């Protein structure tokens, strides 16, 4: 996978050192009264924005060193968190599964092997690995061929029983079904690239003379493409899978190349088609049909692939706010703790973890925050962010959070275009969250004095365009906070948001537009 590559400026190193070691002694002697009144006044002024007149705003700021609450408004109110939910899911996964956790994908043979003939079934068994690419399934097929198997007399069995058969979250909107950020969840899935958007395929269009050429990544005949697009003076094209089908309909006009990430209807069936094609490519012929079911006891392992560790997966998961990773990890936690790969079992693990760490107001309906019935209070989020500082995995988890203004995609993540040129740049480590009428930003920032602060900003029920700039102004003001001197007038703060300010996470806008 791609790792973070941008060199951090000196201020970033100072901020990282302030947080990586967890609770520590203050960098300066702290006078609780100095600067706090000015901070309160400035945040109140920022929140007086007319866009929030009819909205709900909850904000909490806490000193990580003293435990002092520096600012709070509606700290205990239940608000929709959007992708701030992933703070709870990722922390519970680090605690429950461990940073060394890997997802194995195996190929098993039943029956007896006689020379190059396998008189039985070939079973592809998954445990939810969201990082599996078409090339990884091809490598598994090559290993089967390398084991001397040329003909399988039985069936190709797709074993996705590690998780249950519920593919979509209870509260997910039906019109999100074909979007890659709401792809179905399965123990057997595949990603089209190293963003690891499991359960989706990239559909690309380009003008080719007077016709529109269509291609997919990876190459697959699983989707049925209906191409009604025409070459035009501009690109104004819609690529959409029809509800409940494998059919992708393309309409509109194409001038320049364009691509869309499209969720498949059934990840297990899609993976089966990829694997069967790779088996044939490597000279392995399966005589029977493709079916689904559990591998029988005694089946012999022929090939194995193991994912990257959870510690490594946290980077694309949290930096790019990957919904599917969150839901797979939720079911994986349920499987480990109660031997049930279900949402209910996994959400109980996350909720129990949160409550064990002092969280009071919590209602988790999924692992990603796509549900509008998820609910947390800003005070609860700050409590979680405070509690996890003492965990042995905190440093790795903290590093996985998006970093404000850092242009490197796997460093800045969903904050890479925000707060550039301000004291928050390369300082704020925080999780974003966006749905229509919902935005949130929660995480850590180091003040002008070197004091670590924890914050949560949750804005709900606004009718304007997304007010992410309000979040940014507060975060910048926290980076300017000083116990020894006033930081200045809030009206003069620069938020330099840049990038997209719509109703979806920055990284959900494919290709990356921010």
UniProtKB/TrEMBL annotation:
The keyword NAD appears for this protein: no
- Which segment of the chain is annotated as a signal peptide? 1-29
Keywords, A to Z? Carboxypeptidase, Hydrolase, Protease, Signal
Question: What EC number(s) does the entry state?
Answer: 3.4.16.4, 3.4.21.-
One of the record's GO molecular function terms: serine-type D-Ala-D-Ala carboxypeptidase activity
Tell me, which GO biological process terms does this entry list? peptidoglycan metabolic process; proteolysis
| Uppermost EC category | hydrolase
Q: Which InterPro entries is this protein grouped with? A: Beta-lactam/transpept-like, Peptidase_S13
Gene3D superfamilies in the cross-refs: D-Ala-D-Ala carboxypeptidase C, peptidase S13, DD-peptidase/beta-lactamase superfamily
Q: Name the SUPFAM superfamilies for this protein.
A: beta-lactamase/transpeptidase-like
The Swiss-Prot or TrEMBL record describes its family as follows: Belongs to the peptidase S13 family.
Q: What is this protein called?
A: D-alanyl-D-alanine carboxypeptidase/D-alanyl-D-alanine-endopeptidase (Penicillin-binding protein 4)
């Amino acid at each position: 996978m791609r790792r973070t590559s941008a060199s951090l400026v000196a201020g970033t190193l100072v901020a990282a050192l302030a947080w990586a070691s967890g609770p520590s002694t203050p960098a300066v002697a702290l006078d609780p009264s100095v600067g706090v009144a000015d901070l309160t006044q400035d945040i109140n002024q920022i929140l007086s924005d007319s866009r929030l007149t009819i909205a709900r705003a909850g904000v909490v700021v806490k000193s990580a060193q003293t435990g002092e609450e520096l600012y709070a408004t509606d700290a205990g109110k239940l608000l929709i968190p959007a992708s701030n939910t992933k703070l709870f899911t990722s922390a519970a996964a680090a605690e429950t599964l461990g940073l060394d956790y890997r997802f194995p994908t195996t190929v098993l043979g039943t029956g007896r092997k006689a020379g190059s003939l396998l008189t039985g079934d070939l079973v592809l068994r998954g445990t939810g690995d969201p990082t599996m690419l078409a090339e990884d399934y091809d490598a598994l097929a090559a290993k089967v061929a390398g084991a001397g198997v040329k003909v399988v007399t039985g069936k190709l069995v797709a074993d996705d029983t590690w998780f249950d058969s519920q593919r979509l979250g209870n509260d997910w909107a039906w019109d999100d079904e074909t979007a890659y950020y709401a792809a179905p969840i399965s123990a057997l899935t595949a990603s089209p690239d190293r963003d690891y958007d499991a359960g989706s395929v990239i559909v690309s269009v380009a003008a080719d003379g007077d016709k529109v050429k269509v291609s997919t990544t990876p190459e697959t005949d699983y989707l049925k493409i209906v191409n009604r697009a025409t070459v035009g003076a501009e690109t104004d094209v819609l690529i959409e899978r029809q509800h409940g089908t494998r059919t992708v309909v393309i309409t509109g006009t194409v001038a320049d190349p364009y691509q869309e990430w499209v969720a498949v209807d059934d990840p297990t069936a899609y993976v089966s088609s990829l694997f069967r094609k790779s088996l044939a490519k490597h000279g392995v012929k399966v005589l029977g049909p493709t079916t689904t079911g559990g591998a029988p006891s005694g089946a012999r392992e022929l090939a194995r692939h193991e994912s990257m560790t959870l510690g490594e997966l946290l980077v694309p998961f949290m930096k790019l706010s990957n919904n599917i990773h969150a839901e797979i990890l939720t079911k994986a936690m349920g499987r480990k703790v109660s031997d049930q790969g279900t949402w209910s079992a996994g959400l109980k693990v996350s909720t129990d973890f949160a409550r064990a760490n002092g969280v009071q107001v919590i209602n988790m309906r999924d692992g990603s925050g796509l549900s509008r019935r998820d609910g947390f209070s800003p005070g609860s989020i700050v409590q979680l962010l405070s509690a996890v500082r003492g965990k042995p995995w905190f440093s790795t988890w903290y590093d996985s959070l998006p970093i404000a203004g850092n242009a490197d995609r796997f460093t800045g993540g969903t904050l890479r275009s925000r707060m550039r040129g301000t004291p928050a740049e390369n300082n704020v480590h925080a999780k974003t969250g966006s749905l229509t009428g919902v935005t949130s930003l929660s995480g850590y920032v180091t003040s002008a004095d070197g004091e670590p602060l924890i914050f949560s900003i949750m804005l709900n029920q606004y009718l304007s365009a997304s007010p992410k700039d309000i979040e940014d102004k507060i975060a910048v003001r926290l980076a300017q906070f000083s116990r020894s001197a006033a930081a200045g007038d809030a009206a003069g703060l620069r938020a330099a948001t840049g990038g997209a300010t719509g109703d979806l996470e920055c990284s959900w806008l494919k290709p990356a537009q921010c």
